[in-house]
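user: can you give me the structure for this one chain? tokens are fine.
assistant: on it. calling the predictor now.
[tool input]
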Amino acid sequence: MTRPRTPSARLRTGVPALVVVALLAVILAKGDYRANFFSGGGFALGALVAAIALGVVVTYRGSGVVNLAGAAVAMYAAYVYADLRAHGDLFLPPLPNPLAPIEGLVHLAGDDSFAVPHWPTSVSFGTAMGFWPALVLALVFCALFGLVLHVAVFRPLRHAPVLAKVVASVGVLLFLQAVVVRRFSTTTQVVGPLPFVDKTQVDLGLFKITQEQLFVVCLVLVLAVALWALFGRSRFGLAVRAAAENEKGATVLGFSADRLAAATWVLSTVVTGLLGIFVASVNSAVDPNTMPALIVPAVTAALVGGFTSFGWTTLAAFGLGMQVSLVTFLGANESWFPKAGGLPVPGVDLLVPLVVIVAVLALRGQSLPTRGVLGPGRLPFSPSARPWALRYGGPGLAVVALIPGVFFLSPAMRDGLTNTLTGIVICLSIVVLTGFIGQISLAQTSFAGLSAYTVASLSTHHGWPFPLPILAGAAVAVVAGVLVALPALRVRGVHLAIATLAFAVAVDKVVFANSWINGGFDGATVTTPDLLRSQDTATHEFLGVTIGDGTQPNPLTLVFCLVVVVALGYLVANLRRSLTGRQMLAIRSNERAAAAAGVNVAAVKVLAFGVSAFIAGVGGAVIAYRTGNVTPDKFLYDKSLMFFAFAYLGGIASVTGAVTGGLLVGGGLGFTVLNQVFGLPDEFVLLLGGLGLVVTAVLNPEGVAGKARTDLLALRRRLRPPAPADPPTSTDSATMADSSTPAEPLIPADTATPTTGPTPTVPSAAPTPNAAPTPNAAPTPVASGSAAGSHVSGSAGATPAVAGEAR
């Protein structure tokens, strides 16, 4: 029985509908608006966005994954098709050769002629292919690739938390982009036309459109209807819906959730790849940047459709695609359009998906769909820093970085260490937001960029002395972070990731691409103190010690970055040990239980976003002072994805994980060693980052630092001598049923058990067996900081504690 809709629900649905109808009425009433909105290019773009969005919906309905790599799959399929048609070659991913370190070591020994066998880079099918053979082979590749994605990546993550699935999809996106850039560089590739349609204009009365654009639009509409019929009327669709509602119940009824998920992955990659090929053919070109960025409007359209409705998703996708040409026309012709420096503000068309996302999240809130998975999954463990680590470990690591960096490293290695230090700062901001409170943000470099441009403006144009611009830039980043935090008050997980990704893409185009802000071709100049200028080659005397060797980069720049890293590292470590840090972990574990225990969930979330944005803002200011100028390429949205990848690789829930992630960032010390010693090309940074992110999400969610910590604890347990057993008392002897059978605890760890009182409690990670209950004792709610499905409970007004050492 369908529940009647409440007046508030009708209002939430009716107001947006009235706004959309009013906008359409204005567009239809004005001829210029109508001609630019209903344009062939807008329809073609809307068709591609719709195809990607339909693939996202199909994947979500079958496996519960919001695939952020869907647009990258379309781009990759277009490149496969274009290469087959042009050369008859199927290019292969350029995976690293395991024999390359041997070649590098031999070259270091002085024998440059030594070479190891190389991996094949392509499979040749002879000469250039025709349309149909190339299309069939490309679609077969898409089907196999979809099956590989399911089997190798997302099936192992079937019951993982949302964070792991988002991380894996981001890793696939980065990997596919890196493969294409490595094989074809960033230049545009020519794609042959479709043989059965051409660019002849077709007059449909209301608008004109070419034959090939009309074909693509009709194909998308046919696919949308076919998918609606498949998922709504067929036995397969009913099985998918059953598995989406209750996976365990569907299994009992005889449906294989694994096979259903595999089929939907294959279907989604084929649909997305097919339209990617056709739209690339219509546009006669494909590049590695345009299509992947369409994931933002695509997931926006899927969000409008609730990740279930093919009809609403398709309509929203066409609307988001068609508005681009209209916004471009308005910027060039309307005086009321926002201007900056006398020119139209760029990227306003990318603000539209962001506004739609915020509106949908605000109106629907917690009514967004959630699959009935079998288990809660586990989040990475967040350890609390030991006192000895704060007293001796941090200063020791600082000295280890300081002395070689200032006195012994070569200029290339010194530059790599400086890049590592700035990377650590951005990774620390991700640790606070994602590791401590479980909020997924893909916009950290956007906060850093806003701070960097603030520093450039205040230091150069307003004469602010160092270090005041750093504080002002961080304050601007905090304001932006708090604004982004507002959607997080109602949603979390992948929906928040979508919102932050849309924010990052919009900031790229509206702010960083704005010539009034970015300083033009040379970038925005930063007035840097002479001692901190990275280009300074002077030597300095300090307490009789000479600092500097007359080469760039300036060692004092490294010292400045190191001081900032140490200060922020201690800030994050002490935040984790504080009451606020324990409240963050309680919210990460269970928001409802934390609220019941008296935690102000909204305030703590906003605080986490503010602290995270502050750290990222300080990182952006450090980058600005270090380089002496600010350019947009340092802070684009793909840099946020890369930092997120390396933070997760290092260990997203600890300071040591951030340090490890900083060692892995592009241009950091780790890749500098690989480049200088083993000759690894710079293009492999993104490729290895994406591949490592996928592998880490599947096999080692704790990251490198977390894995090292657990291995060290296991080694200590093996080496520790067993404690002597206490002699049994008479009572113990009387109660033993069988001395050969070890006693088991009455209450397993991390399992909630009811008590005799009215309020349930959760034991800490090391409960005491056979503990006698204390009458009338106020229970203390506990939020386990361990990775294993912890919970929070307790009476209102109590403060949740965190068993951060429970492992």
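assistant: here you go. The domain at 29-99+118-337 is CATH 1.10.3470 (ABC transporter involved in vitamin B12 uptake, BtuC). The first strand starts at residue 89 and ends at 91.
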